[in-house]
């Protein structure tokens, strides 16, 4: 195969475990994340030369637990710039696993391209025995180079599975199959160069999304409900000028009585409140007069608290701040 006939894929590196290194090859903990550069990551996967031509950029070199809004803005803008180039067929982002699902969903709602944008990562550092990063990177580039991946929004390629950014979440602290889509299952799979999509993304994203990347992110925080909870955290956030609060509630997004009154007061102060659940799967039903109408709150549906925060920030930044409008956004996206 002539290399000049292969698609051109941009690989944007941000750090993470996939770019991590430890002193002991038998160790998968105690490593330094983000220390391996993008060119070294690519050199470790010579099979990429059979899949695509690569344009590589080092966007950041961080542990993804330290992901920032400023870096989100930088990353999304760079993806839009690259996607606008006629010679670029798709984009891959290497990322840490800790906040990958948040970054992926943010990009899913803000980047403006039908070209494939695929995030990948690793659970083991590059120095580890049986490191999973090289195969995940090869599979991500394979998906990004696939014509059938166009128009699917932002995807996550991990452990031979392909997930939509909206539904995927990290479900294990150590396993190489750490990413799952609990309610919907994977979109498809990628293995040995074969890309198979078994379902399609149905909710609006990318070009169909009403949201765009922002330079100034509204302050939205998460509080949890649990046995013996108090209103201290909610009151402190309101005093600090928070614009929105996502509650990681128990069960179906239920909220402790002590927090409930604080949230009522927060809504009266102009703070948007969204009820999500701390449970790992399922959905939060809008409870009407029993809860949401009385609180002035919004149901997060199937979004976990961290993705609900992303969507609420974008809604507020777009000027959607009344409960009815925010509920429309959560029902749609």
Automatic annotation (TrEMBL):
<feature type="binding site">
    <location>
        <begin position="97"/>
        <end position="98"/>
    </location>
    <ligand>
        <name>substrate</name>
    </ligand>
</feature>
<keyword id="KW-0378">Hydrolase</keyword>
<dbReference type="InterPro" id="IPR027475">
    <property type="entry name" value="Asparaginase/glutaminase_AS2"/>
</dbReference>
<feature type="domain" description="L-asparaginase N-terminal">
    <location>
        <begin position="9"/>
        <end position="200"/>
    </location>
</feature>
<dbReference type="GO" id="GO:0006528">
    <property type="term" value="P:asparagine metabolic process"/>
</dbReference>
<dbReference type="InterPro" id="IPR006034">
    <property type="entry name" value="Asparaginase/glutaminase-like"/>
</dbReference>
<comment type="similarity">
    <text>Belongs to the asparaginase 1 family.</text>
</comment>
<dbReference type="Pfam" id="PF00710">
    <property type="entry name" value="Asparaginase"/>
</dbReference>
<dbReference type="InterPro" id="IPR027473">
    <property type="entry name" value="L-asparaginase_C"/>
</dbReference>
<dbReference type="InterPro" id="IPR027474">
    <property type="entry name" value="L-asparaginase_N"/>
</dbReference>
<dbReference type="InterPro" id="IPR040919">
    <property type="entry name" value="Asparaginase_C"/>
</dbReference>
<feature type="active site">
    <location>
        <position position="17"/>
    </location>
</feature>
<dbReference type="InterPro" id="IPR020827">
    <property type="entry name" value="Asparaginase/glutaminase_AS1"/>
</dbReference>
<protein>
    <submittedName>
        <fullName>L-asparaginase II</fullName>
    </submittedName>
</protein>
<feature type="active site" description="O-isoaspartyl threonine intermediate">
    <location>
        <position position="17"/>
    </location>
</feature>
<dbReference type="InterPro" id="IPR037152">
    <property type="entry name" value="L-asparaginase_N_sf"/>
</dbReference>
<feature type="active site">
    <location>
        <position position="97"/>
    </location>
</feature>
<dbReference type="InterPro" id="IPR004550">
    <property type="entry name" value="AsnASE_II"/>
</dbReference>
<dbReference type="GO" id="GO:0004067">
    <property type="term" value="F:asparaginase activity"/>
</dbReference>
<dbReference type="Pfam" id="PF17763">
    <property type="entry name" value="Asparaginase_C"/>
</dbReference>
<feature type="domain" description="Asparaginase/glutaminase C-terminal">
    <location>
        <begin position="220"/>
        <end position="330"/>
    </location>
</feature>
<feature type="binding site">
    <location>
        <position position="64"/>
    </location>
    <ligand>
        <name>substrate</name>
    </ligand>
</feature>
<dbReference type="InterPro" id="IPR036152">
    <property type="entry name" value="Asp/glu_Ase-like_sf"/>
</dbReference>
């Amino acid at each position: 195969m002539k290399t000049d006939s292969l698609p051109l894929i941009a690989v944007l590196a941000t750090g993470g475990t996939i770019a991590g290194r430890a002193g002991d090859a038998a160790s998968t903990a105690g490593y330094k994340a983000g220390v391996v550069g993008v060119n070294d990551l690519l050199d470790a996967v010579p099979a990429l030369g059979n899949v695509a031509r690569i344009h590589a950029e080092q966007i950041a070199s961080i542990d993804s637990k330290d992901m920032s809004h400023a870096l989100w803005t930088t990353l999304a803008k760079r993806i839009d710039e690259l996607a606008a180039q006629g010679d670029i067929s798709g984009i891959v982002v290497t990322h840490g696993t800790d906040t990958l699902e948040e970054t992926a969903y943010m990009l899913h709602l803000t980047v403006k391209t039908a070209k494939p944008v695929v995030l990948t990562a690793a659970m083991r550092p590059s120095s580890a025995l049986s490191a999973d990063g090289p195969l995940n990177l090869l599979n991500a580039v394979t998906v990004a180079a696939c014509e059938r991946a166009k128009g699917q929004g932002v995807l996550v390629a991990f452990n031979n599975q392909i997930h939509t950014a909206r539904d995927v979440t990290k479900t294990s602290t150590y396993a190489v199959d750490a990413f799952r889509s609990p309610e919907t299952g994977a979109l498809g799979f990628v293995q040995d160069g074969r890309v198979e999509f078994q379902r399609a993304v149905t909710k609006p994203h990318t070009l169909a999304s009403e949201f765009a990347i922002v330079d100034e992110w509204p302050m939205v925080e998460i509080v949890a409900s649990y046995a013996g909870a108090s209103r201290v955290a909610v009151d402190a956030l309101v005093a600090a000028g928070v614009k929105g609060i996502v509650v990681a509630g128990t069960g179906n997004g239920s909220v402790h009585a002590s927090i409930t009154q604080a949230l009522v007061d927060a809504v009266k102060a102009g703070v948007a409140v969204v009820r999500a659940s701390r449970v790992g799967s399922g959905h939060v039903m809008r409870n009407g007069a029993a809860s949401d109408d009385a609180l002035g709150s919004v149901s997060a549906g199937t979004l976990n608290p961290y993705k609900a925060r992303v969507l609420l920030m974008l809604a507020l930044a777009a000027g959607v701040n009344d409960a009815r409008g925010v509920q429309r956004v959560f029902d749609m996206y």
